[in-house]
Amino acid sequence: MWKDWLAFSRREQYGLVLLSLLIVLLVIVRFLLPFLADPPEIEMISDVKFLTESKYSVKMELKTKSSGSRGKKEFKFTTFNPNTVSVTELSKMGVPSYAIINWMKFREAGGVFRKGEEVGKIYGIDQELLTLMSPYVKIPVRVANERKEYVDIREKRNDRNPVVSGKTENASEIGTLIIDLNKADTTELQKIKGIGPVFSQRIVDFRNLLGGFYSVEQLREVYGLSPGLVDEISAYFVVSVADIKKMDVNSFSLRKLKAHPYINFYQAREIIEYQRKNGSIANEHALEAFTSFDKAALEKVLPYLCFNEKNRNEEQKNEN
């Protein structure tokens, strides 16, 4: 009976033979195909090579210029002010595109050129290009003298970084605009030379994270503000410590504590663990025993901390 299952009719036998021949033919073609036609990878490699050459064409152009042909390159410099020159004008002069991009970013961030050689600070403007460009750089005298005016104003002040409570210095004592860092919005901040839309927004954002400034020196912690710029603009600011928003360490959660720029996860966790084991933190002296707070870290964060402030206010109301 089992032989019946293995028996094939004449037509089925022909079909099996034909199918076997097709399979063999396909296998042979598969192995012979690489020898019969060029592999497509060759064209793909060519495309990759072309893209690679295009990607680095700007760098190769810069190397070619620096090899000695720069003096003969088609630079078409005309007199321009680096603080107002447009992208189109720089491009027509022959300035590399990536240098133009960095140039515009510098200005958008509030940067100002006060001397012709300061153009060399832009990434993509090397010394050789700067030498060719310098004779055409013209900066108005007012802008060039602003740095000296900043220094003169600061020298008139006895206190370089004043901290005032609820009041602002008389502007006539300094002879210039004075802005309270804890009250100013982005529009007011942009009245100060060197602070543009980007820096003004960063200052406000950092102030909101902190809860307010207690010193003008904290501007040095704002991302992107260089020490030199802070030195120049600090004479125009005061801070009102009465406007600082404090955190009650005994009522804030771990998530809220570590959200403050001056408190990291480990410090916030130690505060919560102390409260769980010992109850509320009575005062700042209790924090001195915390291993996660060194002296410097504690001094930075204390102006933003209070202890059971809510309970104390309720007790005072009850007594009254």
UniProtKB/TrEMBL annotation:
It holds the Pfam family HHH_3. InterPro entries: Endo/Exo/Phosphatase_dom_1, RuvA_2-like. GO terms for cellular component: type II protein secretion system complex. GO terms for biological process: protein secretion by the type II secretion system. PANTHER family: ENDONUCLEASE/EXONUCLEASE/PHOSPHATASE FAMILY DOMAIN-CONTAINING PROTEIN 1, ENDONUCLEASE_EXONUCLEASE_PHOSPHATASE FAMILY DOMAIN-CONTAINING PROTEIN 1. This is Competence ComEA-like helix-hairpin-helix protein.
